[in-house]
Amino acid sequence: MLRVENLDVFYGDVQALDAVSLDIEEGAIVAIVGANGAGKTTLIRALAGMQQQARGRINFRGVDISGWPSHRVCDLGLGQVAEGRQVFPTLSVAENLDIGAMLPRARALRTKNRERVLSLFPVLAERARQSAGTLSGGEQQMLAIARCLMGAPQLIMFDEPSLGLAPNIVRNLLDTIRALNAEGLTCLLVEQNVALSLRLASRAYVLENGRVTLSGSGAELLSDDRVRSAYLGL
Fold first, then answer.
1. Contact 8/55 with Cβ under 8 angstroms?
2. Is the pTM of this model over 0.85?
3. pLDDT tens by residue, 20-46
C-alpha cells in the first residue's frame, strides 16, 4: 500500500533521515520505534507532505507522491493524527469534525462518517458544542482521531498517540486502533510505549539516528535482545 525507498531528509546541513526504506501492506499495523531524535516524527512529516525530502521515493497505492503538498497527500487517502493532538482549541468539537470533512474525497461522506465517529467516541457527541481546548487530554486525542477519520483515510499515521495520557486511557486508545484496523484501516504507529506498539504491530521497524537498523514482525522485535536492552530495559 505504501512503499518508501531510500528516503533522505535534511534540516539545513543536518541529515535527519538517511536512506530510509520500508513497506506497509494494506490492512497492516506497522510500528516505528526508536529513541527521541531518531527521526520518527520527521518520517511521518515527510510521508504527509509536510517535510520535503532531498532524495528517495514515496509510493502510495501505485502513485509516486514524492514532493506532493500535504493537502494532495491527504486527499489521496493518507491521514495523520499528529503528535500533541493539535485540535483547534477555540472551535467546538463539532467544528473540529467539520474541518476534517473538508477534503474533496470526504465531503459526500460527511454525514455517514460523523455517525461513525460519534458511535466510536460517544463522549464527543456529548461534548459537541464544547470548545475543544476545554476537553481532557484523552478526549482531545479522541477528537484528533475522529477528525482524521472524517477525512475518509485509507491509511492513518499515528504520531505518539499516548503521549501525556494516563495508562487506562492509553489502553483504550490502543484498543481503538486495533478496532479500526479490524475494520480494514491500515495503520502506521509511532509510539513511545515500545512494548505495547510491538505487541500491536504485524510489522515493525527500528529507527536509530535516521536509519532503519532492524525490521521484522512485532513479535520478532519484541523478543530481540537488542530491542529489549535498548528500549525495554531488560
1. yes
2. yes
3. 999 999 999 999 999 888 999 999 999
